[in-house]
């Protein structure tokens, strides 16, 4: 695994991404200490799964999703034009 300091990582970011795509992760250091890791997407998704839930699915999964609303059909306030 390659270790690179932040300044060099900024200058060669495209190369680091290419390496990650080919299965070669890199550790980025800041002030000599490991700060981040650039890994292939598959490896990152094992740690941080990407949710593909749609907004509609999220709303339907709400525990109170069976609530029925009644519309107030009375007229609104009077308007003077």
Account of the 3D structure:
- With 81 residues, this protein is an alpha+beta fold.
- The protein has one domain (2-60): YefM-like fold, CATH 3.40.1620.10.
- The protein is 35% helix and 19% strand.
- The chain has 4 helices and 3 strands, in the order E-H-H-E-E-H-H.
- It has helices at residues 6-11, 13-21, 41-47, 55-60, and strands at residues 2-5, 26-30, 33-38.
- Strands 1-2-3 form a 3-stranded mixed beta sheet.
- A hairpin with a 2-residue loop joins strand 2 (26-30) and strand 3 (33-38).
- It is elongated.
- The mean pLDDT is 87.
Keywords for this entry:
single chain, 81 residues, alpha+beta, YefM-like fold, three-stranded mixed beta sheet
How would you concisely characterize the structure shown here?
The chain is of the alpha+beta class. Helix content is about 35%, strand content about 20%. Strand 2 (about 25-30) and strand 3 (about 35-40) form a beta hairpin.
